[in-house]
Amino acid sequence: MDWGVIVAAVCRAMEGACRHVMIVDPKTETLSGVRFIYSPHCDDRPPDMAITLVVIHNISLPPGEFGGPAIEQLFLGQLDPTAHPYFETIAALKVSAHLLIRRDGGMVQYVPFTRRAWHAGESHFGDRTRCNDFSIGIELEGTDTASYTTVQYEQLANVLVALKQRYPSLRDVRGHCAIAPGRKTDPGPAFDWGRLANHLPSGLSLA
């Protein structure tokens, strides 16, 4: 008897009930069970600032290449500008995201969710500017044109459920392109918003 096949069938029949449950630890404001490495590229949000927005980005370093330590090195301010010609143009940047989701679904958190990560830059959402003040930035390892992996969509959906549960003020999920039009294009046409919509928790909007 193949128990692996049986368990998979049960999970399918339960329509996602076997999805891994994530929680945000209220003591650390980080995802429980996810590796955390503190990035110096963050600061305090404005006083009493509610978290209302999640911004989806993509990143690959070097561009179009996946795996390796370069993303982490960039977020930690440790990127070697001599390691690749492209790195010379970005090594001095002070950027970060709250969370990175790798191609294989592995995740690393760099900034507690209640702190301000430096991910959005010059940006606006509705009539508000400075989206870093009120948003959470999630990086998907990928490019605008390379299909994202199934496990990345699954992990992203799991994370959004955990975030909504911890921060009820959270209402919207947008791409970087939507809050910095003309300046940013990520997560690009390769990102399937409809696929994410199928697993979006109640109370969150993609449009």
Describe the structure in your own words.
- With 207 residues, this protein is of the alpha/beta class.
- It has a single domain, classed as Lysozyme-like (3-Layer(aba) Sandwich).
- The protein has five helices and twelve strands.
- It has helices spanning 3-13, 70-76, 150-166, 176-179, 193-197, and strands at residues 24-25, 30-31, 35-36, 42-44, 53-59, 99-101, 107-109, 115-117, 124-125, 128-129, 135-141, 172-175.
- The strands form four sheets. It has a six-stranded mixed beta sheet. A two-stranded antiparallel sheet has the order 1-2. A two-stranded antiparallel ribbon has the order 4-8.
- Strand 9 and strand 10 (128-129) form a beta hairpin.
- The longest helix has 17 residues, at 150-166.
- Mean pLDDT is 91; it is low at 1-18.
Briefly summarize what is shown.
The protein is of the alpha/beta class. It is built from five helices and twelve strands.
Task: Report, as a whole number of angstroms, the end-to-end distance.
Answer: 46 Å
Please name the CATH architecture. 3-Layer(aba) Sandwich
Q: Which strand order do you get reading across the main beta sheet? A: 3-7-6-11-5-12
**CATH homologous superfamily heading:** Peptidoglycan recognition protein-like
- Give the integer mean of the pLDDT values: 91
In terms of quaternary structure, what is this?
Answer: single chain
Roughly what percent helix? 10-25%
- Looking at the structure, the CATH topology is Lysozyme-like
Give me the secondary-structure category.
Answer: alpha/beta
E-strand count = 12
Sequence stretches where pLDDT stays below 50 over 5 or more residues: 1-18
The whole-angstrom Rg is 17 Å
